[in-house]
Structure formats: C-alpha cells, structure tokens
C-alpha cells in the first residue's frame, strides 16, 4: 500500500454537501483540532494557497 496518511470522508456529509466540499470541510475540522492559533477566544486555521494545494492535490 501507499505510505501516506489517509483522509477521512464522512459519507452522509458528502451526500449532503458534495464530495469535494466534504473533504475540504473535514480538513478544516482536522486543523481546528490541531491548531493553537487563538484570536479573541476563537481558534483560527490558516494555510497558504500552496499549503492547501499540497494537502489537497486532487
């Protein structure tokens, strides 16, 4: 098998909002659980366009 981290796709979410949208939303959710960027009590996620492209090359 390919040695790469798998991405999670929630079928019910993909059915409701679309596959691509569900993948992006799940990736944002992933980063919100990992990121420590807090501004005015809210968590923030930021990546450059290139970083998002590297994470979601398809």
What would you note in describing this structure?
With 58 residues, the protein is mainly α. It contains three helices and two strands; from the N terminus they run ααββα. The chain has helices at 11-17, 19-34, 49-55; strands spanning 38-39, 42-43. A two-stranded antiparallel sheet has the order 1-2. α1 (11-17) packs across α2. It is globular.
Describe what is shown at a glance.
This protein is mostly helical and 58 residues long. The protein has 3 helices and 2 strands.
> Which value, in Å, is the CA radius of gyration?
13 Å
Mean pLDDT across residues? 88
Helix content: 40-55%
Low-pLDDT parts are none
* Gross morphology: globular
The counted number of beta strands is 2
What topology emerges from the helices and strands here?
Blueprint: H1 11-17, H2 19-34, E1 38-39, E2 42-43, H3 49-55
Antiparallel strand pairs: 1-2
Helix pairs in contact: 1-2
Task: Provide key terms for this protein.
single chain, 58 residues, mainly alpha, two-stranded antiparallel ribbon, 52% helix, 7% strand
């Amino acid at each position: 098998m390919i040695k790469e981290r798998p991405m999670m796709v929630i079928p019910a979410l993909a059915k409701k909002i679309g596959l691509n949208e569900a993948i992006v939303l799940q990736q944002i959710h992933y980063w919100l659980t990992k990121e420590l960027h807090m501004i005015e009590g809210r968590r923030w996620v930021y990546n450059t366009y290139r970083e998002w492209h590297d994470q979601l090359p398809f």
